[in-house]
Each structure stands twice: as structure tokens, then as C-alpha cells.
Amino acid sequence: MRVPPSFRQFSRVTAATMLTIATACGGGGTDTPTTPTPPAQTPAFSLALSANAPTVQQSGSGAFTVTITRSGGFTGAVDLTVEGAPALITPTLAPSTIPSGSTTSIITLAVSLNQPAGTYPMTIRARANGLSDQTATLSLAVVTRTPSITLTRSGTSALTTFAGGLAINATIIVNRIEYLGDVAFSVTSQLPAGLTATFAPANTTGNSAVVTFSAAGSTTPGAYNITLQGSGTGITAATLTLTFTVTPSASVSVGVSRNPVSIPQNGSGVTSVVLTRTNFTGAVTLSTSGAPAGVTIQFDNNPIGTNGTTMTFIVGPSTVPASYPITLTASAPGVASANVVVTLVVTATGTGGNTTLRFCGSAADIPIW
Prior knowledge:
The protein is built from one helix and 28 strands. The chain has one helix at residues 5-24, and strands at residues 44-49, 55-57, 61-71, 78-83, 89-94, 97-98, 104-111, 118-127, 134-143, 148-154, 159-162, 168-177, 183-187, 195-200, 203-204, 208-215, 222-231, 238-247, 251-256, 261-264, 268-278, 285-289, 295-299, 308-315, 322-332, 335-347, 355-358, 365-368. It has a five-stranded mixed beta sheet with strand order 2-9-8-4-6, with no helix packed on it.
């Protein structure tokens, strides 16, 4: 049978359409799409330095950072070493092993004073289990120390005096680095009126000098920061600041509890010495003058750190009966001496006089006539 052309045309279109539908619905094939597999990672790490060419003076030190960068899934610890350091250059790693989770270490290079100036190559090596070592080259330049000085004070005791008191000395030490020249001293801060600072010597090629502070009686009390300077040709001036304290003016006065004191020949008697202190707590020394022949004067304590003591007169049998003015002087470092005149009356034996009773535990002197 003969098929009409129009039918054949319809059949071809229908077949093509069915094939398209079948393909869209998953028919016509058995292949399933797959996700590509990524390439395998290679564990690794790299090494970097914060300074590849540091400069350090003789007798100095320099520090820089080592940084580890991990990759490819590597998380392990990394050990560090320094190779090629000369005997007089000491490297220190902190830490020497960079643990998992950390990435840096500090390398310090300490250079001996005797290490010659020059350039010294060294290798920083990093190791990790199962991985290739990583290295970085370090070129350390050692240079001669720059000439310089510093000033320090010998001793730590407080520098203090009262207005009008004793001068106070302090020893200044000159610490020299590659400098042997003359050092001149000066005061660069403003001193209060009445306070002076002088150096002995004012210039030195040695290693020390003494500065003397003096406070006149008119100096305003207070604590003063005083800056001292040492300078020399070709070097940076060095300074040192000291605190000097001025307290109010100090004084002592002296008196006695009984005056005059009457004692017969070959007898003894006492009176109490009374000190009055103003802004002064130091030891006070007592002395006498004007005692006649045959009279001895003694103190229970001398020097004294309190406000009084007992003064005893011992009269010999040959002392001529009379009235004697005896000067009692109280002196102490840095304060004006004070004195009082005590009249000693020596009476003839058998002609009376005062009899003195001293009671234990009492400071009183009780004369009985």
C-alpha cells in the first residue's frame, strides 16, 4: 500500500518529538553525572625572618621574629636551630620549638664585647617530622660600640639635711663605653634659693666625682629633684636626677633643773640636764668648762639621744670654797651649739650647805637645807 507523503511527514515529526520527551524524562541513557575529585593536599610549611640583616653593637644584643606559615593540612610542631654563629655570638630561641597552634619565635643574638666588628652569616633552620627542612639566611653586622657615658650614684641612702644644717655628699660614678676623655659636671635644673651643689673635681678623666649639697638657713624646706649632667667632646651628655630633701631649721637648747648647786668640800651633788629639740633627733654631746681644781663633773649618758641626763659634781677636799660659774655646752653636727651657766657653790666642810637626796626611779633632785 502506498503511504501518502503527508503521513510520512507526520510520522517523522512525532518520532522526533517522542525522542525529545524520552530524553528529557531520563530515558534513552544510563550515565549518571559525578563530582570531580580534588587533588590530594601536600603538607608543608615556610619560614620567614622579620630582619635578615640586623646590626648589633659589641657588648649588645638584637632580637627579631621567626614566623612559620603552615599549609597543606600541616599542623605539627616545628623545631628551630641557629647554625654558623661564632663563639662570641650567643643565639637564644624563645621558644626553640614552635608548637602546634603557634607561628612565631623570638631569636636573640647576644654579642660579646670581644667580638670583632664585621658581618657574620648564619642559617636559621626549621624542622618538622616527615617534612623537608626550611632555612633562612641571616647576615648579622657587628659594629664597634658608640662612645658614650652614663652616670649613676654610689649608695642609696636618702639625701637630706635641714636648712642651715650639715652639707651632704654624694658620689657620682662615671660609666664609660669606648670613651676615655674628660667629663665635665654641671647642674642643669633650677636650684631653690639657698641650696647649692658643687663638684669635686668639676672635670675628670677618672670614673667618679663627689657632689656636695649645702642648704642655707633661708632655704625653703621641701623635696627637690636635681638633675646633674656629665658631658664630653664627641659624646652625648649623660644626666642623673637625684632627690634632695631640705627640712625646717633645727636647733637644740640646754638647761638644768637646779641652779645654783651647793656642795660642801669632799661632797657631791647632782642636777638634771634638760634638752629642748627643734626638728633635730640626732645625738647631742655635752661638755663643760670653768670647773675649779678638785672638781670632777660626770654625765650618766654622753652623748645622749634623749632629752636629758644627770650631771654629777664631785668636789674634792682641797677645793677652795667659792662660787664657780661652770659653762655647760650641748653640741651636735649641723646645729648651733647651746650652753647654759651652772653656778657651783662650794662650801667649807662643816659649814653647812645643801644635802641632796636622790630617790631611785625619780628624776627629781630634792635639796634639803
